[in-house]
Amino acid sequence: MIILGIETSCDDTAISIIKTSASALKKKQPVFSDFEILSDCIASQVKIHSEYGGVFPAVAKREHQKNITPLLIKSLKNSDLLKKNKKSIDAKKLLKVQKILERNQDIFNDIKEFFKEYEIPEINKIAVTMGPGLEPCLYTGINFARSLSLYWNIPLTSVNHLEGHIISNWLSPIEKISFPATALVVSGGNTQIINIEAIGRYKLIGETRDDAAGECFDKTARILGLDYPGGPSIAKEVKKFKAKKFNISLPRPMKYDKNYDFSFSGLKTAVLYDFKKRTDEEKKSKEYIIEMCYEIQKSIIDVLVFKTMKVAEQYKTKTILLGGGVSANKELIKEFKKQCKVKKIDFNAPLPKFSGDNASMIALTGLFSPNAKKTSWQKIKPNSNLKING
Length: 390
Ligand code: KG4
Hints:
By secondary structure, this protein is of the alpha/beta class. It contains 14 helices and eleven strands. The strands form two sheets. It has a six-stranded mixed beta sheet with strand order 3-2-1-4-5-11, with helices on both faces. Strands 8-7-6-9-10 form a five-stranded mixed beta sheet, sandwiched between helices. Helix 7 (161-167) packs across helix 14 and helix 9 packs across helix 12. The longest helix has 29 residues, at 286-314. The radius of gyration is 22 Å and the shape is globular. The two termini are 26 Å apart. The site of 5'-O-[(R)-(carboxyoxy)(hydroxy)phosphoryl]adenosine (KG4) has 19 residues, from helix 8 and helix 9.
């Protein structure tokens, strides 16, 4: 069984191809040795969006359209599945593809040439992200997947992006994850605590009421004049921190509230107020920026870890899992490891290359999750507010 994963929910165009065996598919829980990643390709738009300090949906859609067919070719080539075509093009099917891609003309122009030049690859299934995410971006990936499914006559399945982030943990070289587990999915668009009974059985326990943790990193970094994405820029500054000089003190929004929700917009405002009251000299001083970054990261980590550990205790969780771009943060991982060790809870964070958006997590979810049901190219639609419960 070979599956092609497609991810375009935000600003990364990603395509992955994963191979597994029929016996592995029967297992309740796959292990690392059950599958082989034949290729994992990504076209990042970070440089383009850094000009705006955040993701611009229309620009992201344009870039996805430009990148997706070349990325598919690269991915098939890396997987040794790219073969030159000997047959002529199927004009009837191509007309249908043209209809699917009527709002993605650039893709149609590329894919037409691709169908002419290359044979149908030995792929058994296509998995594509259906949400949550930016609607124009989701549409691009979905229309691309629908076109391939129709032209190649290969089944299609839709995947919840958040479930993908949870499943990215199975891309780590670990043998087994014990349930019940609790996942903290932290990215630029989401901050959610999700309880997991088994693969495919989830319950949303808490989420952000305003900005996501990654968004808070990005916006506060922008206030301080640091590069986008803000998370890695802030983490880099924190490494230089030695001692406090400016007495910066930031809030821990909703830390002690009785629910498990988050709020990070107040933290961003607190950073802005502190920044505004500083003299021009202070604002430009390296020590001020470093101390502020240290405090921002500390505050975000403090709230995330405190609330997740509280959920884990209440629900007698056996494993805590991370997912999403922010889960690449080394200090966040260190703090979780420390507290999980004390509470005797297993812990896993995805490998850094699978913490942010990627298509291997979508392909793997499409292979193993009971939620990834077969759908037809006629029916599949994006859902930008898709929830995880189920
Ligand atoms: O999951 P992701 O790649 O994209 C989506 O949001 O869908 O997450 C991107 C977010 C950005 O907000 C970025 O600042 C944050 O993840 N991020 C980090 C780190 N690396 C990326 N935040 C904190 N520390 C990091 N090392």
